[in-house]
Every structure is written in C-alpha cells, then in structure tokens.
Design brief:
31 helices; 49% helix; 7% strand; disordered C terminus; globular; alpha+beta; Type 2 lantipeptide synthetase LanM family protein; two-stranded antiparallel sheet; 19 strands; Lanti_2_LanM; 5-stranded antiparallel sheet; Phosphatidylinositol 3-kinase Catalytic Subunit, Chain A, Domain 5
Length: 978
C-alpha cells in the first residue's frame, strides 16, 4: 500500500549506496531491506488514520463497487497504487504528502550517512567484536526514537558480530567508563558494572558501541552480584545526577547490569511552582525528585497517558507484574470496514532482567548494600579531594537533558498528524504551542520561548522526537533546529554540591521503600517469606499494647514533613489506582491523609479515655493533616473548574471506597464521627465529592471496593442517611431531595455493576484488564462487590441488586476448596490467600457483617472456615490490616464473639502473639518491610489503630468495611489485658 511513497526514495538510496563503493551488493540489499521495514512502519503510523477515514468515506458514498468487503478493500488498495492515488487521498489534507516526503527523505539521508560511516570505519570496528566484523547481514532501526532529521540508533548484525551505531557524540560513554574503573579499581573485570565499549568518530559527531547481549545469571551467586551491582549503579548515578535509566537503557549480561545509554548525566534539578496543595507537599515532592527515584533505576508505577500503572524501571519491569495496555489496532483488516480501535495487549519483554522471574525480595538487601559500600568509597575519595577532579572530566562531554517526557511528545505528534489537524493545520499548530507553553508553566526548566516551541513542533511534523543537549560545564541547552535556551551554569559543580548534601540513610530508605513498586498487588503476595516465629509472651499485655501503639504514633509524628503554611505530609510507599510508588501522601483513606487523620483522631480519643499513653504534638499534627486535606480538595476543585473553562478533559479520580472519591466521602464522615470536623462541613464536602462520581464511574474499569464503583456505594448511602437526619438549616447538601438524590446515584453505580457483570462460569464475576475472568475476595473481587450490592438492595428495595449479590456470592463459593478449608486466589492458580485484600480474612469480615444483618446459616459456615484459615495461615506475613496480623486479629475477634472462632484460640493468646512479634520484629508493612508508611490499610498507622481497638472498652469503628457508621462498641475483640 505504501510502495508508491517508499520505493522511489529507496531506489535513490540504492543508487547512492552503489556510488559509495564501500558496501558489497548483498550488503546494500540488506541495508535497503532494513530501511524499507523501518520506513514502512513509521510512515504507516503517520498515515493510517487518513487512509482508514478515506476508506470509510469511499465505502459509505458508494465509490467502491466490488461485490464483497474483501474485494472492496483490494479495490481501495489498487486505487492507492495508481499514479495519482495518494494525491487524491491527500487532497483534503494539504500538508500530508509534503510531511511524508520530508520524513522519508530524512530517514533515507540518515541511512546513507550511516552506510558511509560504516564503510569508512569498518576496519576498526573489529575492536568491538574481538575480531573481523565480516559481512553485514541485518540492520535494526527500532532501537530508539528518531531525532534531528531522522537519525536513530541502529544495530548492525554482521557475520563476525554486532555493533551499535549512535548518531551522537559518545564522549560521555568513554568518560563514564573511565570513572567506573577509577572508583571500582578492585572489582573483578567480569563482574564490575560497566558501559559498552565505544569508538568515537574523529570529529566526535557520531560513534560506535559494543553490542551487549542479554544473558540470564547462571546461579544464585551471580544473581546476588547482579543486585549488588544495581546498588553500585545507584551510587554512581546519585553522584553524577543520572536520570532516565529505564528498563530499555539497561541490559542484564550475566551478573552485570550494563547501562547501554548513559547520555542523561548531570541532569539539572527539577523545579516546580507552588502546587496549591500545601507547602509540605511541595517540599516532599522536591525531596522525592532529587532522590534516587529520579535515576529511573528503582521501581515505581507511571501515571502517564498510555503508561498508566506500568513500572518501566531498570530494576523492575517484571513480566508478570505489568498491566495490560490499550494498543491501537485495525479491526476487520483486509475489508472495507477496516477501522482503528483499541485492544488490550501485553507489553513486550525487556532485556533488563537477570532471570525470567526475579525474586526482588530475596536480593533487595544486596541493592541497599551495594549502594552503601560504593557511596562510602565516593565519600572517602571526596574527603581526599579526589572526587571533584573525576567529575570535572565530564565538563565538556555532550549530554542529553529530558525537558519533556517522550510520551508527551508522542501524543502531541499524534495530534499534529491527526486527519483533522492535517485538514486544517493552523489551529492544530496553535493548540500544540499552547500545550507546550502550559507544560513549561507547570514544569520550570522546560522551554516556553516561541522560537524553541515552534522548532519542537517542526520536529514533530518531521516525525522526530525533539531532543535537547548541553555540556555540563556550560549548562546552556541546545534544542531542535539549533535553538538555545537557559542560562550558563556549571552543572558539574551543582551536582557535586547536591551530592555532598545527600543523606545516605534517607536514600537507603528510598531504596527499601521502592521495591514494592515492582508489584501490581496490595504489597503482599501468597508465598512471600514469613517472619521468623516467636514464642508468645502473655505478661503485661495492656502495658505492652500501649507501648507499641505510642511508639508507632510517635514515629508518625517524627517522620512528618511540615510546611510553613501549616500543611503536613509524609513520603512513603503509596498505593494509587496506578499502583505503588514512593511519593508524598495523597488524601485517600487507604494510605493517604484521611487514613492518617483517622489514626491520629482515634489515638487522641483513646488518650482522653486513659486507654492510650499521651504523645506530644498529636493535637497539632491532626489539625495540620485535616488542614492539608482541605487545601488539597479546594485546589482540586479550582483545577477542575479551570480545566472545564478551557475545555480540557482531566482523567477523573477513581470512585473507590479506599482509593478514590468514595474513600474521601467516607473519610469526611469518619472524621465527623470521631469529633474532628463539624457535621455541616463533613456533609458539605462529602456531597461535593459525590458530584464527581458519575464521571468517575463512567471511567471505572475495576468495579471493586478499593478503587471501583462498588466501593462508593455504601459511603453514598451513609451520606444520604446523614443528610436526611440533618436539621433543615444545617447547610449545603441538606435540602429535601439531597438524600433521595444520593441514593439514586448509588443505584446508578449498581446499574453499572449490573451492566459490567459477567455470567460466564458460576454466578457472576467482574472482568478487569488484569483479570479477564474476574477474581474473588473482599477488596478486589466477588465478595466485596456482592457485599456492596446486598447493602444497596437493602437500601433501595431493588430485587435485581439482591439477585446480583447472590450471584457474586455464588462465584466466591466456587473458589472454595473443601480440602483446604479456604478459598483459592484466582490470581495465583491453586494458592489460598489468608489476607483481607485477597483471601479468608476479607471474606470472613464480609460474612460477619452479612450474618449480623441477615442471620443466614450460610454465613456462619463461611465465617467459621475463614477464621480457622486465618488463624492457621493469616499470621506472620506482615502486621498490617490489609495483609497481616492486625487484619487477621479483627476476623478472629468477630468470629469468637459469635462462638465461631477456632477452638482454644483465646483473646489473650491472639494478643500475646501479636504483641510479641511486634516487639521482636518491629511493625512490618508488606514487601517493603523496612520502609516506613504511616497509612491506614497497608501501613504502620493501621497497626496502631488496631492496637487501640484491642482494648475491650474501645469503641473506635472498624475500617475493614467502608461503612461510615455511628460510634458503637464493636463486638468480640480480644481484651488484651493482664
């Protein structure tokens, strides 16, 4: 289809190759074939939407006359092959063909330059393969984005080995190689971290690099060395301000992680304008941006368009822990109904991993150790005045500065090549310029000068990704089309100054915390290592309970980051709808500000009742947390209003009851219940949040309690009840129809769950991108969704919700394994989870609530089995509510109160087991066991909260179901007293 566009330039290229006289005829054919493949892919990505749009127009207007859809497609292809075929198609899109000719011409010219350089340099390239290079057999031009006139990294495979062509200076690669040799002189060469060997061109405009193959480690010893080496890279990149070291820039070659693209060194520090979410968050974000997270080596989930939930890190990108992604695909190909659609696809494998399924937890301490030992070496070298001269050697090396994410450029390019933009280019170009300037407003350091912005757009129209470079000794950036921006600065001196201010222990904590970002789930998985067992001690239970709770809460206070405006936050591993990442706390209940506020409010309440020991500063800290939540919600409202005024669509927050809008509705009601905020404010703010739920539910793909629509149902119903009960003059959100309106909204969420349910298999399940057959459990699966629907049926009287709830419970029952007395975890095949998030604890908590409300004998059996399995397998993993001992404790307390607990398991025994393991190991919160997290469900804050609830007179509400209820003494908790 594209031959009329591609073949004439390729014929010219072939003639030019012959005139060079440096490539044999077979080699010329190899190069032409490789360029043809690359050109065809690149050109089709640019023109496919125009082709398919015009195909559809020809079909609906009757221009295609063949008898069937296949024939009409062939007729369309034949039209494009006619002498003026492309001119006719492109007529409504004036810039299309000129832009295509430029793109194709640039790529062909770049290929000719590479071929000429290869022919001239071939004799010395044998140094990179250990012998004669031999004949060219294949080329691959998809090793990176194209820049500056179609130039791209290319792999050339020859009979004697492979080499990599880099159309840039490789001076920084050689300097980094020298640096590594000098700071690691005693490391054995075969296992020392390295970069590929390089050969620069005489004029330093391009270079050649060794090709590094992907080789798995041979044994556990090599794996240990590999992860120690990752720690070495972290130390080096912290010292050299390295960035953008994602999975594609690191190749695992046995025990050595080889950085194959090291051009982003001496990266200027990110700066940002005040966010409006509080100075504490701005300070915390600045700390995070300057930490090891900036290197790209450490795991963390992306929130960028098209990459949401992906961990692209060099240490992560685990194949079984990546979300599915939406991929543009042609539906009904080969017919006149062909059209672009989005389909779910898997991300391609990467070469960064040292084994097929790495166990990060087993080797992560080696990463910390590697970082520590090389950082100590660097500090010693600095103390002797040796480090500054080593860094000075980089001063005149060209380096790249990533001022805008490649993803942003990709999306802008798609917009500029869209049929509507090609039909009327000026508005599209103006819009692209506006977006680039807006980006610069939000990210100081990105260019906003008109000349630079226009040059960026020109590069995108050429089919290239704009690139910016500098030398660390000068600091002025050179951009597309020779533009420049920025002031002169000594990036070497700045980098050394920032490194000297680094706190190594803070960076070690970042490394420990970041590991959880490699995993998709709740920070826990069946089968991870358990804590060493302990012999429970039953003496002084209440004293020990108070001591443990006070210690945790005191650490929460100590770790807080304060702003001068009275705001406060923490940096911790945080779970969002995109996954885990180390960042400042959001506002949600699961691990964010609302959860911390509930912990602090609960603690102060118990102090007032003499059931907890005073901790200084908590009253002020709680007020600051609530103040910060208010700042965040008010600023988000302003941002939404500004976006609406500019007709900009913002991705809605998820609707969930733990992560999302539902959690914040619940959070305001909980804070009112605990006496922290007045009722009129709680109702007003919660009602305002409820207005956001329709858009959130429309975008929901998870459906569950944690992030999905099911999680918002019960908080909405509780809000409706509180609005109904409020006095008529109680403020906003209390007019006569507010309660019915909120219940109707909850019913709409139920309708969506009805529409998204799958009846394939037993009962009903809810497919997601990650789990097409749906899963079980309370937080993410059938039990939780069924529980919310049962509550909705009770509140609305709608029988269809009750029927769907029963179908959900039938699905959960199908996972029950009578031989194990537990429920299979559908994510893990035959494993049986015993946690709140996935497994018996969550299923049992729901069963207890349903039993209390409905009195069904069925739920007695579920609760008995769940409690027995929780006692047998739910302890010893972590201490959290989500997937640890304090979640299992609550289930045992509930079951024991109904006489359904495991025989012989007393409240004192459970309390003794909990407190002894806390004293022996300290609070552990998931796979990042050494990382501090103050949050409620998966952090130490929740551990403290449950320790408060161990007291027999404590009436703090449970948080293991999203039920904003009136305070009342929960039943069946262990006494925890001696």
């Amino acid at each position: 289809m594209l031959s009329r566009l591609v073949e004439p330039p390729l014929a010219t290229l072939a003639a030019q190759l012959r005139s060079l006289g440096t490539l044999s005829e077979p080699e010329q054919q190899v190069l032409i074939a490789g360029v043809r493949d690359g050109l065809t892919q690149v050109a089709w990505r640019r023109v496919s939407r125009v082709v398919l749009l015009e195909l559809n127009a020809a079909r609906v207007t009757g221009q295609l006359t063949a008898d069937d859809a296949d024939g009409r497609w062939r007729e369309w292809v034949a039209r494009l092959a006619e002498p003026d075929g492309w001119e006719r198609v492109a007529a409504p899109y004036p810039p299309l063909l000129p832009q295509l000719w430029t793109l194709i011409g640039n790529r062909c010219a770049a290929a000719l330059r590479m071929a000429d350089r290869f022919g001239r340099d071939r004799g010395r390239l044998g140094q990179l393969v250990g012998g004669a290079l031999g004949e060219l057999q294949a080329i691959s031009t998809d090793a990176g984005d194209s820049h500056r006139g179609g130039e791209s990294v290319t792999i050339l495979r020859c009979t004697g080995g492979s080499v990599v062509y880099k159309p840039r200076s490789v001076r920084v690669d050689a300097a980094l190689d020298r640096f590594l040799r000098q700071v690691l002189p005693d490391e054995p060469e075969p296992s020392r971290i390295r970069v590929p060997a390089v050969l620069p061109s005489p004029e330093d405009r391009y270079g050649w690099a060794e090709y590094v193959p992907h080789v798995y480690c041979a044994d556990q010893e090599q794996l240990g060395t590999f992860y120690r080496n990752l720690g070495h890279w972290l130390a080096v990149m912290r010292a050299l301000a390295g960035s953008d070291l994602h999975n594609e820039n690191v190749v695992a070659c046995g025990p050595v992680p080889v950085v194959v693209d090291c051009e982003t060194l001496f990266t200027p520090p990110d700066t940002s304008r005040p966010s409006g979410f509080g100075e504490a968050l701005d300070l915390a974000a600045a700390q995070t941006r300057q930490s090891l997270l900036r290197t790209g080596l450490l795991p963390g989930r992306q929130a960028l368009l098209g990459w949401r939930g992906v961990d692209p890190s060099a240490a992560g990108f685990l194949p079984s822990e990546q979300p599915t992604v939406q991929v543009p695909t042609i539906a009904d190909p080969g017919t006149d109904r062909a059209r672009l659609t989005l389909t779910t696809g898997e991300l391609p494998a990467s070469a960064n991993l040292p084994s097929p399924e790495p166990d990060l937890g087993g080797y992560w301490q080696a990463v910390v150790g590697g970082f520590s030992e090389l950082t100590e070496v660097l500090h010693a070298r600095d103390a002797h005045g040796e480090l500054a001269p080593l860094l000075a050697e980089f001063a005149d090396c060209p380096v790249r500065v990533v001022v805008r994410d490649t993803t942003a450029y990709t999306e802008l390019g798609r917009m500029l090549w869209h049929p509507a933009s090609l039909h009327d280019p000026p508005p599209a170009r103006r819009r692209a310029a506006e977006l680039l300037v807006q980006h610069a407003e939000n990210r100081p350091g990105a260019p906003d000068a008109a000349a630079v912005v226009e040059a960026e757009i020109d590069e995108l129209l050429d089919g290239d990704v704009p690139v910016f470079t500098t030398t660390p000794g000068t600091g002025v950036l050179t951009g597309p089309r020779g533009t420049t921006f920025g002031e002169p600065r000594d990036l070497v001196a700045e980098t050394l100054h920032r490194w000297r201010q680094m706190r190594p222990e803070a960076e070690r904590r970042v490394i420990r915390a970041a590991m959880v970002g490699a995993y998709l789930n709740d920070g826990w998985r069946p089968g991870q290592d358990r804590l060493p067992s302990v012999t429970p001690r039953a003496d002084g239970l209440d004293r020990r309970r108070r001591e443990q709770a006070a210690t945790i809460v005191a650490r929460i206070a100590t770790e807080a980051i304060w702003g001068r405006d009275g705001s406060v936050t923490w940096v911790a591993p945080v779970r969002s709808s995109a996954g885990w990442a180390v960042q400042p706390l959001p506002t949600d209940l699961y691990g964010g500000g609302f959860g911390v506020a509930v912990v602090l409010a609960g603690y102060l309440r118990e102090v007032s009742q003499s059931r907890a020991d005073p901790v200084p500063g908590l009253t002020e800290l709680l007020a600051a947390v609530v103040h910060t939540i208010r700042l965040a919600e008010d600023q988000q409202r302003r941002q939404q209003a500004d976006a609406a005024a500019l007709d900009i669509r913002i991705r809605p927050d998820p609707p969930g009851g733990y992560l999302g809008i539902g959690s914040r509705i619940w959070g305001w009601l909980l804070l009112h219940q605990l006496g922290v905020v007045p009722g009129d404010e709680a109702r007003r703010r919660a009602s305002g949040l409820a207005e956001l739920l329709p858009a959130a539910a429309a975008a929901d793909r998870e459906h569950d309690l944690v992030t999905g629509s099911a999680g918002a149902i019960v908080p909405l119903l509780a809000l409706a009840d509180q609005v109904d009960a409020a006095p008529a003059d109680a403020g906003a959100g209390t007019d006569s129809d507010s309660g019915p309106r909120l219940r109707a909204l909850a019913g709409q969420l139920g309708d969506r769950l009805q529409a998204s349910a799958s009846r394939a298999g037993a009962g009903a399940g809810w497919p997601t991108d990650a789990y097409p057959d749906g899963i079980g459990g309370l937080s993410h699966g059938a039990t939780g969704i069924g529980w919310a629907l049962r509550r909705l049926a009770d509140a609305t009287g709608r029988a269809e919700f009750a029927e769907l709830a029963e179908a959900a419970f039938t699905r959960e029952a199908s996972y029950f394994d009578p031989d194990e007395g537990a429920w299979r975890d559908a994510r893990e095949g035959k494993r049986h989870g015993a946690a709140w998030c996935h497994g018996s604890v969550g299923i049992g908590i729901a069963a207890d609530d349903l039993l209390g409300r409905r009195g069904s004998g069925r739920w007695e059996g579920v609760l008995r089995h769940a409690a027995a399995h929780a006692w047998a397998d739910g302890f010893g993993w972590t201490h959290t509510l989500c997937h640890g001992d304090l979640g299992a404790w609550e289930l045992l307390a509930r079951a024991s109160a109904r006489g359904l607990g495991p025989p012989g398991v007393t409240a004192e025994l459970v309390a003794a087991r909990l407190l002894t393991t806390l004293e022996e190991h300290g609070p552990m919160s998931g796979m990042a066991r050494d990382a501090f997290a103050p949050g409620l469900l998966a952090g130490e804050g929740g551990v403290a909260y449950q320790l408060l609830r161990l007291h027999p007179e404590c009436d703090l509400p449970s948080v293991l179901l999203p039920v904003p209820a009136s305070p009342g003494r929960p039943t069946g908790r262990p006494t925890g007293r001696s």
